[in-house]
Write a structure and sequence with these properties.
Structural class: alpha/beta
Bound molecules: pyridoxal-5'-phosphate
Number of strands: 15
Radius of gyration: 21 Å
Strand content: 15-25%
Oligomer: single chain
Length: 387
């Protein structure tokens, strides 16, 4: 990244970790299809399996239950289907329940008929309303498949996944946890979350984009059929010659994230506290979304009444600070967030949401520089609004 740029947008994508870059550089020099029987092929296979172990270890899963995909979007599309296999027995979900604050990879990426997909409400902090889940389960029909994120990409709010999963399991259903934003940042354990399926993405934790995984509670838990069929790679779960470079980078990034987890969590929390203290000093009217809720330690979503996110993002970018407004949208446009909308945030703040997210590469000096830039931009925008 250019030396004069500051990057506080880890929730959109994290910079490549040096460990991932080194592993990928070494893999670039080698040839070998992991399915080939010769020495080159066997070496490639060994690299894929080592990465599988590292990714499994990050979330407390068994390596054989990890299916590599092209990213979290594909893994979610793969898992969010009515026909699954649970403990080696066919399972048919009558409905998909998803919280209203899920990523579009869930809300638009599932493979249920639209009439069988329901959105569950959240409270003012964006946490799933457990009473509404219970009422929906009681109203039938069942069994259901629940899709719930471990933590929200826009606000960082931690969802009550284990509590929700317990309700769904008691009603005979199954659970897919989108752990994209929490994996590698806070302890994210498949069993503790109550997940039958867990989804992770490489590029949020310092691997390249274009690699992710669908991780299952056991080998006997899987989608009933593959979405991408062909040569039968990934134990038939996802055909196509493996993305060796991406997978090797993913494994190295997962191992590095896991090794650093204990120090990283409090470090990120300190950076975020300083950031939020500074934002409130710049403008005491700053609203930090979900500030009172349990959140990821790296994420701040805020708004200042009277300041539009789109204008602020452009001004910050020109001054060298890369941040975003909610999720990275493929059109590059700033749209009002469906997450804040579900939290019943009023129109002024809804269109003003700015997200700053720190991560493994962030430092206190960067946070201080970002605050200095924000103070300048804020003063300019307020002046313009008053003129
Ligand atoms: N789920 C969440 C919570 C995300 O933040 C993202 C990425 O923005 C995705 C899913 C999709 O991940 P990928 O980019 O790997 O397809």
């Amino acid at each position: 990244m250019a030396a004069d740029r500051l990057y506080l947008d880890h929730n959109a994508t994290a910079p490549l970790r040096p460990e991932a870059a080194a592993a990928m550089r070494a893999a670039l020099e080698r040839v070998g299809n992991p399915s080939s029987v010769h020495a080159e092929g066997r070496a490639a296979r060994a690299a894929v399996e080592a990465a599988r172990e590292a990714v499994a270890a990050l979330v407390g899963a068994r390596p054989a239950a990890v299916t590599f995909t092209s990213g979290a979007t594909e893994a979610l599309n793969l898992a969010l289907t009515p026909d699954l296999v649970l403990d080696d027995r066919p399972f048919h979900a009558a409905r998909l329940l998803a919280s209203a604050v899920e990523h579009l990879a869930v809300l638009d990426g599932h493979r249920f008929p639209s009439a069988a997909a329901e959105r569950l409400p959240v409270d003012g902090d964006g946490r799933l309303d457990i009473a509404a889940l219970e009422a929906t389960l009681a109203a039938g029909p069942g069994p259901v498949l629940l899709a719930l994120q471990s933590a929200n990409n826009e606000t960082g709010v931690i969802q009550p996944a284990a509590e929700a999963a317990a309700r769904v399991h008691a009603a005979g259903g199954a659970v897919v946890v989108d752990a994209v934003q929490s994996a590698g940042r806070v302890p994210t354990d498949l069993a503790a979350l109550g997940a039958d399926f867990l989804v992770v993405s490489g590029h949020k934790l310092g691997a390249p984009a274009g690699v992710g995984a669908l991780i299952r509670r056991s080998e006997g838990v899987r989608p009933a059929g593959a979405m991408i069929r062909g040569g039968g790679q990934e134990r038939g779960g996802r055909s196509g010659t493996e993305n060796l470079l991406g997978i090797v980078g993913f494994g190295a990034a997962a191992a590095a994230a896991r090794a650093a987890l204990a120090e990283e969590e409090p470090r990120l929390r300190t950076l975020r506290s300083r950031l939020e203290e500074g934002l409130r000093t710049v403008d005491p009217a700053t609203v930090i979304f979900s500030a009172g809720a349990d959140r990821l330690p790296n994420t701040t979503a805020f708004a200042v009444p009277g300041i539009k996110a789109e204008t602020a993002l452009i001004a910050l970018d020109l001054d060298g600070l890369a941040v975003s407004s909610g999720s990275a949208c493929s059109s590059g446009k700033v749209k009002a967030s469906h997450v804040l909308d579900a939290m019943a945030i009023g129109p002024d703040l809804l269109h003003g949401m700015i997200r700053m997210s720190v991560g493994w590469s962030s430092t206190l000096a960067e946070v201080e520089q970002a605050l200095a830039i924000w103070a300048r931009v804020h003063a300019r925008l307020k002046e313009r609004a008053a003129a």
